[in-house]
Fold this protein.
Amino acid sequence: MTSAASVGERAPRTVEAGNGRRRRWAGWAFIGPFMAVFTLVFLAPIAYSLWLSVHRTQFVGGTQFVGLDNYVRALQDPRFWEGAVRVGLFLAVQVPVMFVLALLAALALDSGRLYGKSFFRISIFMPYAVPGVVSALMWGFLYGTRFGLTGNLNDLFGWNLDPLNSSLLLPAIGNIVTWQWVGYSMLIFYSALKVVDTSLYEAAAIDGATQFQIIRKIKIPALRGAMVIATIFSIIGSFQLFNEPQILQALTPQRITSHYTPNMFAFNLSFAGQQVNYAAAIAIIMGLITMVIAYVVQLRGTRKDV
């Protein structure tokens, strides 16, 4: 027989259980819209690309599961490695040059001795606001030997300048990317410098430190985290190199091939060659390479000095 006391104890427990269930459902109600959008725009494309990469669609036979055959084919394809090595070289040269320019600009803005600081800051950052396609078209008109600035200079002085010849093509593309992204990196560095405690500068000045010593001992170490972030962004951006060579290809189709970069290779395979399964495998491989390199940079950049 149930006593009145036990009934009285069970009632609060039932109320607490009901409140707990409502709280759990309230949590799902808050994150549900985000999870739906996240699944639709992030997880679903990756899952579909993975599904494409392990299948092969043929005119005769339809779509068949082929396992890792597309990945093996990509890793044995010299066209893929030619583009990947070229992008790696681009990353190794362009990113340090861009960082040096961005660092010099950020230090100059932070020094407090630059007149017209706001003008220079917005002027350096302005190219970042220009869409990548527009900037590539603009520089294409400057590089073109049959029209634009280079063509006019050749006609005027009898020169034979060609910024898009075989030896200058990659630096010319790097120049476009640097022009567009140096302001973005500069802003990251400048923001990091603005949060440095000014008492450190005052203490260094009292100790007789020169501006070069302040930069070397205080400012550059303070930029370590910002440099790691900017480096990761640059690695991702370099492996996504597509707009500039794709647009400049119309000016020099013999030098910029359909596999000039891995992204161009995947794009042409997919939309010109109708090889979407092979293109998906190449995209997955490039995504994994980018993730591994970015992760290594993050580990090394965030490692504390002993």
The first strand starts at residue 55 and ends at 58. The radius of gyration is 28 Å.
